[in-house]
Amino acid sequence: VTALNRLKAIVGSHGWIETPADVARYATDYRRLYGGPTPIVLRPGSTAEVASIVTACAEAGLAIVPQGGNTSLVGGSVPTAHGGEVILSLERMNRIRAFAPSDATITVEAGCTLAAVQAAAAEAGQLFPLRLGSQGTCQIGGNLSTNAGGSNVLHYGNARDLVLGLEVVLPDGTVWDGLRALRKDNTGYNLKQLFIGAEGTLGIITAAVLKLSPQPKAVETAFLAVPDVDAAVALLNLVKDSAEYGVTAFELMSRASLDLAQARLAGGRTPLPLEAAGWFVLLEIVGGGTLNDALMALLTEAQDRGLLLDGVVAGSLAQAEEFWRLREEISDAQTAAGGSVRCDIAVPISRMADFITAASLAVREIVPEVRIIAYGHVGDGNVHFNPLRAVEAAPEEFLRHAPAISHVVDDIAHALGGSISAEHGVGQAKRDELPNYKSPVELDLFRLIKRALDPRNTMNPGKLLARS
Ligand SMILES: Cc1cc2nc3c(=O)[nH]c(=O)nc-3n(C[C@H](O)[C@H](O)[C@H](O)COP(=O)(O)OP(=O)(O)OC[C@H]3O[C@@H](n4cnc5c(N)ncnc54)[C@H](O)[C@@H]3O)c2cc1C
């Protein structure tokens, strides 16, 4: 009780939440699959307050779960069922600290939503290119802690590539001010990269210097029907082969995944009839004034080579946004459908078709009547391969097979030289599977780093690595 009173005094009366009804949304994850009891939710307003909280928790032996927008798909942002962790939400730390147009950088606090950072950059005529379906809710601190990917990685890289500097509160309460805005700085270990993708297990990110890009002069968006996954990959290679434009997005979607999204969008019209094909691609390219001509030439060539069944090019920004809405609705539509297993897989792009064929067969051997919801950032070799129960099957019944499905899909990805988590992280969902796919050397290095920075294991325990 004394420790909790000390924590409350640090953040003041607006900075903590204790009532069970109000705590619930912080203590339960986005998909309501993970969560556990917490003594208190703390909402600090400054880095100094975060540092005081972490110091007080370290002294009291209290563990902390750092939380951003709580959109984690692997149970990383909520307490474990074991419980007892304090939830430290960054949501009140949402200020833009500095904007430097001539350096093309913006310095933001960790609790800024991704959409707010995109808007601040756009207002100044620049672009912050990270783009995720959850961008209205997820926060920069969460994006960096998960090394988020999303739809623009192909051209701009993932979150890791968009950061120049970080400010971090370490597990003992020390503040590391690494808010440098340098594009070159070879003065030793690249410490910021240690915290990016660490899922809050090594410290709390409180602010970041982000890299901005110029707004593209022209953008073209096309919704394409392709014969199969092999054709989609061949089309990707054709598209990437041009020096006339940059490819910002190449998203593959199975027909079953679009069926779900369309139903959730109240059956709105799709750009192409979905009966036209089993697989669709959302393509976005950027370039100069003759971009539309270049796209038309590309699509003609793709058709001549048999890589394209049909296609529609967005005639306006509003139409392009409609294409994207359909793509971005898939994730939530699938959550709402209930009873699915999420596998966020990466494989070398050349093995994508082999992966989807082998994994679909293997899953159908476990549950013959299954819908394969496969979609994602195939331009990066990343597919969300998410088997979903048949319409008439009960979710609980289907989910009895979840461990077996997950295991077989991960095994196939691994055998093809892939990863069992391309962009969502490990969290609680993949923690116990990780040792099957990492070498003992790699796992030992993970533990060595964790022990060096967080010897008491109070920073997001039970995520990424087992509590031990
Ligand atoms: C509809 C939908 C679409 C999505 N699409 C994508 C996608 O395309 N690509 C993709 O990569 N992900 C995607 N995600 C997953 C998720 O949105 C991302 O992982 C996102 O980066 C998480 O940000 P957040 O602020 O919600 O973090 P949270 O969920 O709150 O936390 C995620 C992890 O980061 C840690 N953390 C959060 N903030 C901090 C901090 N300040 N310091 C230290 N640790 C911290 C947490 O402890 C946790 O381990 C999607 C999720 C949804 C619901």
Explain this structure to me?
- The chain is α+β, with helices and mostly antiparallel strands and 468 residues long.
- Helix content is 35%, strand content 20%.
- It contains 16 helices and 18 strands.
- A seven-stranded antiparallel beta sheet has the order 15-12-14-13-17-18-16, with helices on both faces. A five-stranded antiparallel beta sheet has the order 5-6-10-8-9. It has a four-stranded mixed beta sheet with strand order 1-2-4-3.
- A hairpin with a 4-residue loop joins strand 5 (96-100) and strand 6.
- Helix 1 (2-11) runs antiparallel to helix 3, helix 9 crosses helix 11 and helix 12 runs antiparallel to helix 14.
- The model has no long low-confidence stretch (mean pLDDT 96).
- Bound molecules: flavin-adenine dinucleotide.
- The site of flavin-adenine dinucleotide (FAD) has 38 residues, from strand 3, helix 5, strand 10 and helix 11.
Work out the number of β strands: 18
Mean pLDDT: 96
Number of helices: 16
Helicity, as a percent range: 25-40%
| Main beta sheet strand tally, sense and closure | 7 strands, antiparallel
Oligomer category:
single chain
Low-confidence sequence ranges: none
Terminal CA distance: 27 Å
Q: What is the beta-strand fraction? A: 15-25%
**Radius of gyration, Cα only, in angstroms?**
23 Å
Strand order of the largest sheet: 15-12-14-13-17-18-16
- Shape category: globular
Broad structural category: alpha+beta
The hetero compounds bound to this protein are: flavin-adenine dinucleotide
